[in-house]
Amino acid sequence: MPCTLTGSQPLDCKDSVGGIRELKVKVHPGATTIANDFTIDSSGVVTAIASGSRNTWYTYELEKETTSVNVTGQYNPQNGTTWYQQEIKLIMNKLSARLFYEFDQMAKARILVAIRDFNDVYMLFGLDFGCDVTAATMGSGTGRGDRSGYEVTLMGKEKRLTPTITAAIWNTLIS
Asked: How far is 69 from 167, CA to CA, in rounded Å?
């Protein structure tokens, strides 16, 4: 069956800004729970999350202009395959035993990650297969003004584009 395009895109306003404001993390509950608890419409918007899957999310407030996200489409015409690599570069200032332990536990799990950017766009990473920690650095620079903290890379490889969620759903994701 041939694929269809959905419409034209006019030039938009120049009112967008970069940066990630906040991040929420949850251990991935598994494919069966995702299929049962998450409703996604045909345009890629999560329209509902069952109450049980809205619990045990942990919030990370982020320093402005540090954390970034990128989603790269991977296409192979010869094999007829399409997938999306999701990458989050999480920066946390200040070294602490609690944060070190948290990142160590995160590296051992598959996780769901919800992102809120500075345009109040909300996205859900690792929905089908989870995100993994693929790199983590703990360090302190040499100068007094250098970062003392963590850089953690989270990676997801998904079969569909990164879905968005509404602010109302975001606000129900609690610890």
From this structure: 19
